[in-house]
Amino acid sequence: MSLRNKVVFITDADTATGKTIVKRLADEGAHFVLNSPSGGNALEAEQSYCQSVGSGVMLVNIDLCRSAEVGAILEEAAERIGAVDVLIHNNNLVKPTSVETCDESLFLQVMNYNAKSAFICTQAVGKQMAARRSGKVIYISSIHAEKPTGSSFVYSVSRSSLKMLAREAALELGRYHVNVNTIEVGPVDGDDETFRSDFSTLYHDYQYKVPGTVLGTQDDIADCVLYLSTDASRYVNGTDIRLDGGFVLHYMDHKMNKNPHN
Questions:
Q1: Which InterPro entries match (predicted)?
Q2: What is the CATH number of domain 7-255?
Q3: CA atoms within 13 A on the CB side of 254
Q4: How confident is residue 260, by pLDDT bands cut at 50, 70 and 90?
Q5: Is residue 158 helix, strand or coil?
Q6: Would residue 54 be called left, alpha or beta, if left means φ above 0 and alpha means ψ between -120 and 50 degrees?
Q7: Apex 179 CA angle, 174 and 185, nearest 5
Q8: From CA 210, how far away is CA 191, in angstroms rounded?
Q9: Does residue 186 carry a pLDDT above 90?
Q10: 178-185 and 7-10: which strand pairing?
């Protein structure tokens, strides 16, 4: 087991991505600190699975933008199940808005949830990891760190902020053998609704804008997270892994591969 007795902190375990990662990493022997906005109600199946494979779980429900709360939980976790070895920041809030119409409160809501929380968690966990001279920080982000959505400019801004946070943290924490990397996820099922736009056609027939015409899945994300969590990725630091099947390379709709078997 590649993560035997490693402690993994997931910032939003209630999401489909979070749940898939829990099961994938539990199979590799990990224990967990799971931040659950539902207070664990959405994670009954995952808790049972972890118990069945011998993975310990510490459930929390904290404000990740409050450094005092994050610090207190990390201290408690160190006493109960061990210091955090892997931080997986997977907060993903999308709110439809434009530069013209977005008000300040909405801008701050998305930025705080997607970006400030990453800074607070990285700062707190990074101090512990630096002291132990070991650790992994993984941000699950989006291709919209670079490519506009056409539907939520503040989402793109929050993702581009995360991109540079990762690079700065990789430079600083890397001196202590802590790896910091970002997974920039491309389209998955349902993103045509998530990023529905009145003027952008980016997500029209989006499956066919992936050269292989197959959308990514939560399992694809979990597999990439597993790699970055293990010693196999020891020389990967400050990197953006584009996990999109080639989606951002698309350039002409009339060239879409709608008959991949012909």
A1: NAD(P)-bd_dom_sf (IPR036291), SDR_fam (IPR002347)
A2: 3.40.50.720
A3: 0
A4: low
A5: helix
A6: left
A7: 135
A8: 13
A9: yes
A10: unpaired
